[in-house]
Amino acid sequence: MTQLINEKDLNFLLYNVFAAEELTQLERYGEHDKGTFDAILNTAKGIATDYFAPHNTKADQHEPTFDGKKVTTITEVKTAWQQFANSGLLCATHDYDVGGMQLPTLVNMAANAYFMSANPSSIAYSFLTAAAANLIQTFGSEQQKQTFLPPMFDGRFSGTMAMTEPNVGSSLGDLTTKAIPQDNGSYLIKGQKMYISGGDQDITENIIHLVLARIQDAPQGVKGISLFIVPKIMIHADGSLAEANDVQLAGLLHKMGYRGTTSTVLSFGENDKCLGYLIGEAGHGLKYMFKMMNEARVGVGLGAAMIGYRGYLASLDYAKNRPQGRLATEKNSNTNTPVNIIQHSDVKRMLLAQKSYVEGSLALCLFAARLIDEHQAAGHQDSEILLDLITPVVKSFPSAYGPKANDLAIQVLGGAGYTRDYPVEQYYRDNRLNPIHEGTYGIQSLDLLGRKLWQHNGKGLTLLLQRMQKTLAEVQDASIQALADIFKSHLHTVQLTTQKLGQAIMQGQVNEALANSALYLDMMGKTIIAWLWLDMANKAQLTFASSEHEQDQHFLAGKLQAARYFIRWELPEIEHLAKLLTNFDDSCLSMQAEWF
């Protein structure tokens, strides 16, 4: 099964749900039209299909090696990297005058979906590089941009984000990597970083690390953190490579999934010769890095959605072609041939759940991309506020439910599912990393309930509710109205729960209110996905109801049924979550370490 994505679904999301063509009315995207968008998508599909998908299994089975001096990756990864770089997709969203395409983030993310489906570990090098370049473009000096961006855009240099340390993890305020000022304006970098994806490889000429460090004598905590550009190899004024920059690979980590991407432990300045260059102002490093982190969080959400999507397509194909068993009404097994397992109701349940999770997750990621365009190209500040609110959900819902979809895909295949002879077991292993990548579920939930909800006097939630009310007002079909009524009932529960938790936080019951924050994140995720399914069902009805094409009718029926499933089966689970949250259940909070 080689299909990477249901193209009808992707086109429906782009052009019917998120109105990609309307973006061409903005000055920044004025030279584009549907034709250019489709051309980009076809290019992405072709490269992903021809150069990334074929070695997905091989990269998993032959992970990078380190002989103490050099990292070696399979040659297919280098070929795929070069094809991606040659296409211009590394800088697709950047200005024309720096070699970019000024492509809307919405369309770029749709193109990226092909690569995430095809081979998430090989494309990770490209996406990390693009994110690092975006950060330098936004916060770097003119000299830094001129030095580092051209070779990153053309694929000669790659990029990383180097935050985590062996004894620090997600508590970035406690990091110990030092930056010692030098007379020439550079800084001597000393410290160790861990779990750095793409931290070393043999794919590019050079690697540009973005390193969080504390300048000598800077205060402890997050306010003392600065951000530095630290190249693996120094660069002459003419752009040619100079001497190595004392960035040592201490070793490779061996992951259960994403095996084609190196995961590294890096030592900076073991020989006191590692130089870094300050980005922006001292003490603002974490603020700058959050641009890359938030971009990466949306990217992790997309990756989780698409790995889940690929598993769904594989299990769907298997279910349609695997004969086994008979329907309950066909009792005489001697005269009746077995049916394909897609005829069994429980298999339909598992496929419907997968469909609702992965297509809903893809819609969520594209919605976030649409908000980025509304803010960056149209100057809508409200879109930025709303994006900031939902980013924890964009990262976390696909990361939680994408692996659940992959788990169901294995179950659909039965005994074949957990063998390496079929791809779904790899998809599960790849996707299991995403709940941890770029902040765990618990960290994202604390960010949402402890901070994001209350910023701008709660305006983000108000904006989200306004969009939901707009969708509700657009519903005309009676069957969709029945789903809308269910949604409204549960939305009321979410509003009451949020209000009660907010009051508790204001009254000083912070620990009690935040103790079950993961439940609130799940509640918000299910609510937003249910809203998106309601919107998709409504727009599918408006788009395809009058069509005489059989494929259109099947597509419409599938969207309606998936919306029914999610709103009837998944959304009501928030009522139980709400009870636990509003009762401030202390089963977890009051548990003592000695009781385990």
State the shape: globular
Strand content: 5-15%
Distance between the termini: 46 Å
Please tell me the overall pLDDT. Answer: 96
Rg from alpha-carbon coordinates: 25 Å
- Count of DSSP E strands? 12
Largest sheet data: 5 strands, mixed, barrel
What low-confidence regions span 5 or more consecutive residues with pLDDT below 50? none
The computed structural class is: alpha+beta
The helix content, as a percent range, equals 40-55%
Q: What is the helix tally?
A: 18
SSE arrangement, N to C:
HHHEEHHHHEEEEEEEEEEHHHHHHHHHHH
Spatial ordering of strands, largest sheet = 4-5-12-7-6
Can you give a write-up of this model?
The structure is a single chain. This protein is an alpha+beta fold and 596 residues long. It has 18 helices and twelve strands. The strands form three sheets. The chain has a five-stranded mixed β-barrel. A hairpin with a 4-residue loop joins strand 1 (65-66) and strand 2. It is globular.
Secondary structure topology:
Layout: H1 7-17, H2 34-52, H3 56-61, E1 65-66, E2 71-72, H4 75-86, H5 105-118, H6 120-139, H7 142-153, E3 157-162, E4 178-181, E5 187-197, E6 206-215, E7 225-231, E8 233-235, E9 241-244, E10 247-253, E11 263-268, E12 275-278, H8 285-321, H9 345-376, H10 381-413, H11 424-431, H12 441-450, H13 459-474, H14 478-506, H15 510-514, H16 517-544, H17 550-570, H18 573-582
